[in-house]
Amino acid sequence: MDSLNRDQVENEVMMLETSKEGSKFYSYVKYVYDSTMTATFKQANMKSQTNFDFTGLKNAKVKFSVTKKYPNFSTILRTEIGSTDLLLESKDKLVWKITPEKDEILGYKVQKATTKWEGRNWIAWFATALPIQDGPYRFFGLPGLILKLEDAKGDHQFNIIAIKKSDEILNQKINFGKSPTEILVSEEKFRNLWADYKKDPAKDFRQTLNSNTKLSVSVTFDGKTYNGDEMARQIEKEGRESIISTNNFIELNLYK
């Protein structure tokens, strides 16, 4: 969200999948995007294809995902800076204050609770009839599932739209480990990487491009084809635009 243009509200469908082992919170749009990209590149490798057409493929606004491991609720934030996949692990507990106010959401009786976390004051509504001490993003620890969550300024809101019980996990097995491409970082290291990215958003892409000078790659988005150098310039342009417009993060303290 752009704090300078608060009238421009952005929405995205998110999924919170829970199991006996833990939970995963992620963008459904990103799930579709990643699945399509993976299938396309897998097929391309089989055919030695170097031109890719992703016209019409919707990109996600929300890139991060969060996993929580039960019962201690160790939390892993999976996010990215440029093309670098990062993991931030936390075992911190949120300190909630449960208040008397009550309401109803999707037919469930809910109660209000508040907490201060990562530079914001948060308001949550939880349902004791759903005995899952979980919620959206990195929030948990109330005596019931969090059905609504927002910060006091209304910059970020999480509103439940449906609840479904299923034996089939959409995003397959919840991964609590680290993949070979992911880097586990501290908050301090994350801030340093963020500062470097703001200086040159296309740095990672250029390094990848220059590492294999024999490979000629072209990519088509929305009917327009880019070669490697054009793609680098486009990534830098879009990166700088995103840095300017995306300035109101959920965790204010993380992007200082």
Automatic annotation (TrEMBL):
Pfam family, one: Porph_ging
Top-level division of the source organism's lineage: Bacteria
InterPro entries found in the cross-reference section: GLPGLI
Protein name: GLPGLI family protein
Species of the source: Frigoriflavimonas asaccharolytica
Upper classification of the organism: Bacteria, Pseudomonadati, Bacteroidota, Flavobacteriia, Flavobacteriales
